[in-house]
Amino acid sequence: MVTSRQTSSVFAVVLAAGSASRYGSVKQLAEIDGVPLVHRANSVAAGVCGNRTVLVTGYEWQAVSAACAPMSGFLIVNESHADGLGTSIAAAVRSVRHIAQAIVVLLADQPMVTAEHVQALCDAWSGADDEIVATAFADTVGAPVLFPSGCFDELAMLRGDAGGRHLLSDDRFNVTKIMFEPAAIDVDTPDDFNKLN
Predict the structure, then answer these.
(1) Half-sphere exposure of 152 (CA within 13 A, CB side)
(2) Contact of 125 with 146, CB cutoff 8 Å
(3) Residue 58 DSSP label
(4) How far apart are CA 104 and CA 83, in angstroms?
(5) Whole-prediction pTM value?
(6) Residue 24: pLDDT above 60?
(7) Containing H/E element for 54?
């Protein structure tokens, strides 16, 4: 784990609460090279943030959290997970906002994201509370994404599936983009998973 001034105040948030209805089973537990998706994402997060890692679970939370053992950091069970991704981000922000200067949001279904890329996001952040650092890939910008404390009020009130994407086009924030094409690979269906394997 590499710790810089910026990283020492950043918490990693791994979103793994959804029911993955399009996948047809507990997607977070699907294995690539024998490693569950959620374990892979949580290990990447912990590789950068150590015990400042927050795993947000919901659907089948016991099995999902067990797949990450031994686990650094914190576990949140989002009982409102069926209401959308935004509720998981909100729960995480509310739990760490008093001690974090920023969070990096990772999705459990982006298996090609590396600790090196998450570290690059942290290193690119100036420490300013109005600077977002996002991943650029496939002509879009998205997760993993670092949100500074200046975003916390709005993130803490998120509902539904909107996530924090709207903040990337908000004039109040400067957005730094870090290219990482492998982030374009996500697992939404069994076909996506079969292609990876």
Answers:
(1) 18
(2) yes
(3) B
(4) 22
(5) 0.91
(6) no
(7) strand 53-57
